[in-house]
Amino acid sequence: MNDTVAKLLICPDCSRPLSLVGDELVCKRQHRFQVDHDSPVLLPHSAMSGSKWQEWEEKQEHGLEDYENPDPTYIALSNRVAGQFGEFCNFKDDTVVLDIGCGIEPTLFYVKPEWYRKLTFIGLDPLRGKIERPYHFVQAIAEKLPFKDDVFDQVVLATSLDHIIELGPVMKEIRRVLKPHSRVSIWITVFEYSPGRNITLASYLKDVVYLISRGRLGDAGRRFLNPYLAAGVDYRPTDQFHFHRFTRQSLLDSFRPADFRPTNYFLLEDHLNQGSKHFFLELGPANKSNSKKTKRSKASHELRTR
Description:
By secondary structure, the protein is α/β, with parallel strands linked by helices. The chain folds into 2 domains: 3-192 and 237-285, Vaccinia Virus protein VP39 (Rossmann fold, 3-Layer(aba) Sandwich), CATH 3.40.50.150; 201-231. The protein has helices at residues 3-6, 51-68, 72-89, 115-118, 167-177, 201-213, 217-225, 248-255, 290-305, and strands spanning 19-21, 24-26, 32-36, 39-40, 96-100, 120-125, 136-139, 152-158, 178-191, 229-230, 233-234, 260-269, 276-285. Strands 7-6-5-8-9-13-12 form a 7-stranded mixed beta sheet, with helices on both faces. A hairpin with a 5-residue loop joins strand 2 (24-26) and strand 3. Helix 6 (201-213) runs antiparallel to helix 7. The model is unreliable at 228-233 and 288-306 (pLDDT under 50).
């Protein structure tokens, strides 16, 4: 296992340092974790039970199926957007970057090949995925980041934030492992409507009649079978892959408990999903002073209203 990564690790169950004993990582409380092909498997023994975690496991299985049978059109468009996100991240040489939810693919799809030589990337995901990767990999969950305090220069969440069960604890964990004055870079889909809107019988039938009148019989049939689908826009609050669907305002609201503030953003049209946009967002730590709080409030308001 790489020495750089080993020095950063702690036990996800008790937060104590880990020592390599044979092919296992062991803490003083004798919590034991395997090392698989030089990649530590630090899934916690606790905290992964209950109905929400059962739902999480089901969504992971759906996601794995989707990863293994990707849509070529989706991949082409995603790669183009990924390149723009990589530039938005504005990585600095000789820094340590944590990617939360890096996925099962062998590369980080927003990273140019030469960047792997200039920076240290550590990917974290609950799914093992490909064994050979050009960056360091830790199998773990975002709710229990197995890293010491103040060790990362930047944290990236590229299309992974909406797969997390509870954002509050995760954002506090991110704040813990970030060095002071460091950044979080996020790529997320945001919706211009309110997910989970109330669907009345009148609005439901009105949508069906409208689609039939426009000759869109296939869409009308899908709308009839699924009350949440209207004119190609999916109004469900969640789906088989995601725990959340955000508007810009609901996304910004989720960061306040961990004391983050928006420092930069970029919006891009989503050509595959009507009513949504790709949202690149940079977060920095919010200062405790009154002047900084005022600045954060203005930045958040501006971000919501543009």
